[in-house]
Design brief:
Radius of gyration: 14 Å
Number of helices: 4
Strand order of the largest sheet: 1-2-3-5-4
Number of strands: 5
Structural class: alpha+beta
Order of helices and strands: HEEHEHEEH
Helix content: 25-40%
Length: 112
């Protein structure tokens, strides 16, 4: 996101200092949350402690049901599940698809 928009992450969580928040610098609205967490936090299987990289992005509410049916997409972790989606960054999704999701998420921060 730094390369694409020039946006630097910030790290607002004392308890989770590695969680990176990406904001639109014009209005400070969030458009991405990058974190590493146990896979079980996404799947509901708390026994699964495999650490995974996850990007949470905002999406149009009507797109969420279709995306959630696909592998690698989960209801948002740590965000409103009506408008946010967590994407597993394990290499299965093409970069251009992830970047398109980021573009859409950031576009929501441009609207008034």
């Amino acid at each position: 996101m730094k390369n694409r928009y020039g946006d630097e992450p910030d790290f607002p969580f004392k308890k989770f200092p590695d969680y990176a928040v990406f904001r639109n610098p014009k209005n400070r609205k969030w458009y991405g949350l990058l974190m590493t967490l146990p896979l079980g936090k996404l799947t509901g299987d708390e026994r699964d402690q495999q650490e995974v990289a996850v990007l949470t992005v905002k999406q149009a509410e009507d797109r969420l049901p279709g995306l959630l049916k696909k592998a690698g997409f989960f209801p948002a972790y740590h965000m409103n599940k009506q408008n946010w989606l967590s994407v597993l960054l394990n290499g299965d999704l093409p970069d251009d698809q992830v970047l398109a999701l980021v573009d859409e998420s950031r576009s929501f921060t441009e609207r008034k």
